[in-house]
Amino acid sequence: MMPYKLLLLLIIAVSLVTGCARVTTNAAATPDGQQNQASASTSENVPSPAPSVPADPGKKVYLTFDDGPNSHYTGLILDILKKFNVKATFVVIGSNIEKNPAVLQRILDEGHNLVNHTYSHEYKIIYASPQAFLADLEKCNQTIGKTGNVVKIYRAPGGPSKLDKTYYEYLGRHGYKSLEWNVTAADTDPKGVSPEQIIDNVKNGVTQMEKMDKAPIILMHDGTEINLSVENPGAAVQNYIKSRESDVAALPEIIEFLQAKGYTFTGVDEKTPSAW
């Protein structure tokens, strides 16, 4: 039998090794979205994790990010998507496109898809009438059109419950198709959310969609343009920033979770199935 002291030393040695095996980083922890020098030099030598099972072309998942493009968080999300070599869809606001045309072009250059989220995202404007909603969609398309693209898939600000039958019929007659979602990160809580909350919300939602045999259409936010240099911006803005940083921090684990399930990441287009 192995002496007790020798056995104890072996247990301690194993514990030390396994306790250091997992290293996590948060790319949104510094103002420019970069890790500190020591973490960066380490992570550069570590390849992105490979999916635990081969991706199934018939098993699709749709990652969607609402309210951008913005000059900070959209780029951080694009960096993560590029690292993992997965595609997503950006649900864009026309007024933010005008502020960040280069970011929109990067989205397209890196092979991601777009959905029209209106020009203004102002409820008083777009929900005045179906005609007003259409006009705002068309105005957004004018900004998108500068890239040579026209987007006829839209997502209603505030969600599909804001639209009644008259909106759907009117917009449909003008060639527009609504995009809903069936999994939400619930990352718009005014109190702010943590990365762990976002990860749990997405995992639970995907599990439910699997039980229903539905392709997960996941709602997250890269967020609207926001001035990060303002001192003491107020609790509401601070919580908004917290949530956007949590989205960025949660995204790698969400991608790994979906890869481990064999999902193929697909951009939204006319062939995307209904959420429900």
Number of domains: 1
Q: Which blocks of ≥5 consecutive residues have pLDDT under 50?
A: 1-47
Structural class: alpha/beta
Number of strands: 8
Shape-level CATH architecture: Alpha-Beta Barrel
Q: Return Rg in Å.
A: 21 Å
Number of helices: 10
CATH class: Alpha Beta
Largest sheet: 6 strands, parallel
Overall morphology: globular
Order of helices and strands: HHEHEHHEHHEHEEHEHE
**Gap from first CA to last CA:** 62 Å
Which helices and strands occur, and which strands form pairs?
Layout: H1 4-19, H2 37-43, E1 60-66, H3 73-84, E2 89-92, H4 94-99, H5 101-109, E3 113-116, H6 123-126, H7 130-144, E4 153-154, H8 165-173, E5 177-178, E6 183-184, H9 195-211, E7 217-221, H10 235-260, E8 264-265
Parallel strand pairs: 1-2, 1-7, 1-8, 2-3, 4-5, 6-7
Helix pairs in contact: 3-10, 7-8, 9-10
Mind explaining what this structure looks like?
The protein has 276 residues and is an alpha/beta fold. It contains ten helices and eight strands. The protein has a single domain, classed as TIM Barrel (Alpha-Beta Barrel), CATH 3.20.20.370. The strands form two sheets. Strands 1, 2, 3, 6, 7 and 8 form a six-stranded parallel β-sheet that branches. A two-stranded parallel sheet has the order 4-5. β4, α8 and β5 form a beta-alpha-beta unit. It starts with a helix and ends in an 11-residue tail after the last strand. The N terminus is likely disordered.
